[in-house]
Design a protein that fits this description.
By secondary structure, the protein is of the alpha/beta class. It contains six helices and twelve strands. Helix 2 crosses helix 3.
């Protein structure tokens, strides 16, 4: 089952950060672009934290004791390098004791400009019987998320719950997730959902290439 939550449909400071990410007059400031991705990660992490399991813990203060409800277990946070790194850092700012997963994936183009998603590297904590949060700024076709999850999850690594967080997603990408990952318990947390994909599978209106805007263009 895949549940979809579009955070931008409600009044939220997240929309301010996304608007700056999209704005061509602001995008030239790479540090601001990265920081806005980080701030969106922080805000999304707070929203997701409300859905986690909690336990009562007694805290001793200098003047007495106080019973408080704390997260029962920190989640595992995963990201797809390189564009996902600032968003991932925002999640880590909130879930500061989380274990982590880093995935190297990219689009491999052929001479006709068609592409496939290549996943070449995982550096992963165990996700078995844990909550996994997989973050990626742009959910375009959805193929990267599907391939990465299929590579992570196996008989020895089955998370109890999966959250996928993306700043901007296309409707086609969401439908691909729903079709290919319906056997998982997934919640999709999306900042904004855009209607279209170009023939090169870029989101419209989107914001461009998040990795290039955050870290500079790749060599040809």
């Amino acid at each position: 089952m895949v549940k979809i939550i579009e955070l931008g449909t409600k009044n939220s400071i997240i929309n301010n950060f996304i608007a700056e990410l999209r704005d061509v007059n602001i995008q030239n400031d790479r540090m601001r672009f990265r920081r806005n991705l980080e701030r969106i990660g922080e805000a999304m992490a707070l929203e997701i934290s409300k859905s986690l399991e909690y336990k009562d813990v007694t805290i001793t203060t200098p003047l007495g004791e106080k019973k408080m409800s704390l997260i029962a277990e920190q989640p595992v946070i995963g990201t797809i390098m390189r564009a996902g790194l600032p968003l991932h850092q925002g999640f880590l700012n909130v879930f500061d004791k989380a274990d982590n997963v880093f995935i190297a994936a990219y689009r491999k183009y052929d001479k006709n400009e068609d592409f496939e998603i290549r996943v070449e590297y995982y550096s992963a904590a165990t996700i078995n019987e844990r909550t996994l949060i997989l973050v990626d700024p742009m959910l375009a076709t959805g193929a990267s998320i599907v391939n990465c999850l299929n590579g992570l999850v196996n008989e020895e690594n089955i998370p109890t719950k999966i959250h996928i967080a993306a700043v901007i997603a296309s409707k086609d990408g969401i439908e691909h997730i729903k079709k290919c990952l319906s056997n998982f318990d997934i919640t999709l947390w999306i900042g904004n959902i855009d209607d279209e994909l170009t023939s090169q599978a870029f989101i419209v209106p989107g914001l461009g290439d998040a990795g290039d805007l955050a870290f500079g263009p790749k060599a040809e």
